[in-house]
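User: I'm preparing a small set of examples for a lab meeting where we compare how different chains pack in three dimensions. I only have the primary sequence for this one, and I'd like the structure in token form so I can line it up with the others. Please keep the answer compact; I'll paste it straight into my notes.
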Amino acid sequence: MLRKILDQIKPNFQKGGKLHFLHSTFDAFETLLYVPNKVTTTGAHIRDSIDSKRSMAIVVAALMPALAFGIYNVGYQHFLSLGETINFLDDFFKVFLYGLWKVLPIIVVTYATGLGIEFAVAQIRGHEVNEGFLVTGMLIPLILPPDIPLWMVATATAFAVIIGKEVFGGTGMNVWNPALIARAFLFFAYPGQMSGDKVWISDKVDAFSGATPLARISTGEMSAATPEEMTEMFIGLIPGSIGETSIIAILLGACILLFTRIASFRIMFSVVLGGLTMGWILNLVGGENIWMQVPAHQHLLMGGFMFGAVFMATDPVTASQTGTGKWIYGFFIGVIAVVIRVFNPAYPEGMMLAILLMNTFAPLIDHYVINANKKRRLKRAQLAAQQTI
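Assistant: Understood. Below is the structure token output for the 389-residue chain.
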């Protein structure tokens, strides 16, 4: 029935129809509901079942465990700050519904703002609506604190879409990850709403600390975490950004992305390897800096390190494209993230800046990798020619 309705009204949006100026909008909704019926007509092409909408849908599905746990954790931290004892089975719906009440408006504002701009730009330029914001619109809420004002969410989203993506030509042309552009904009424009103990817990009481593990290390409250604290960080029942606290939920998303081959295992693994390597080196050097005493593996469990490694660094548009380049790109993200944490006490969460910095250098890395491959093949051809002679 729905297909028949779309077929009946479709001529109005095609060339010559009275609503042709809304062609991009109609096309976006139609292709969201049904598989596009467009096929290649000339040239040699690889044909398979995957397209950009399916790719984006799989990434959104991979984000669902982190989102679901983040919603629960927002409610959990709120009631914990009030001094209530939380029983998972008995209080699940109360905790989850409170978290949903706080998180859902952030998601709605993000999608309404971003998609509104995307649709407007598509109409003005007369091209199809890109699918990229399906993922960006879910990433932005997950990397924000639960108590952030909604007008800031809208402002940051608009900045990310317009300045971070559309000025470069839209989806597939942006240099930096748009979701991280939104977070960077908020961090530098409104640091009071993106740092401190209060922002990480929704409506907490003043007597409750609410400090994240990164903040506790910066203040000297913790260096090497106890086994109980490590378990707590791994599960994710700690203050932090909505979707970044649970390593278990993030790893479930990583399994989906790797199984479907949407994300690169080279980048994920090399980010972790880079973080561990830099952490081990700093542990060996030691010193008075308390961050140098933090075990290397503990860096992986704190802040947005694992979330960035799985969902941000692997962005196919802004990451390196060559196989060797992905190893280099990911390794340096891990190294730089730990370096920023250790040597910049004012900003212990270094994952965002590390990814944005390596987004900038990703094309340069690919350039040198490709040139090195050319030189190697040229030498191989020259040696083969000499042996023939």
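A couple of notes for your slides: The chain is about 65% helix and 0% strand. The radius of gyration is 23 Å.

User: Perfect, thanks.
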